[in-house]
Amino acid sequence: MERKITSVAALMGITAIILGAFGAHALKKQLSVEQLGSFETGVKYQMYHALFLLFLGMNTFLNEKVKKTVFQLVVFGVFFFSGSIYLLTTKQITGVDFKFIGIVTPIGGVLLILAWSVLFWNVWRSKR
Q: I need a labelling partner for 22 at 20 to 30 A (CA). Which of 15, 33, 37, 116 fits?
C-alpha cells in the first residue's frame, strides 16, 4: 500500500506543478483574475494533498485499513474538488459549460475534510 500511495502522491505532485505552470503562463491571458485565482486554488489543494499522501505513505503507525481509507478519500476528494475547479474555470477555453458539475466541488471538499478527520481520529486514539 505504501508504494501505491507514494506513487500516486508523486503523480499528483507532478500534475500540480504542470497545471500550476500552465495556469501561470498559458491561462494568464485567457482567464479573468477571478478565474485564475480559482484555478490556482485547485492547484494548491492538489499539491497540499500530494504532500499529505506522501506523509501517509511514509507513516508507520497507521494500519493498512486506515491508510487505504484516507488514500481513497484524498484521491476522490482531489479529483472532485480540484478537477471540477479546473473544468469550471476553463469554460472560455474549452467552450464547454461545466456548470452542471458545480455540486461536485463541495463534495470533494467534504471528502478531503473526512480524510483529515480519519487521520486525526486514528492518531488520537492510537496507543503509541
A: 116
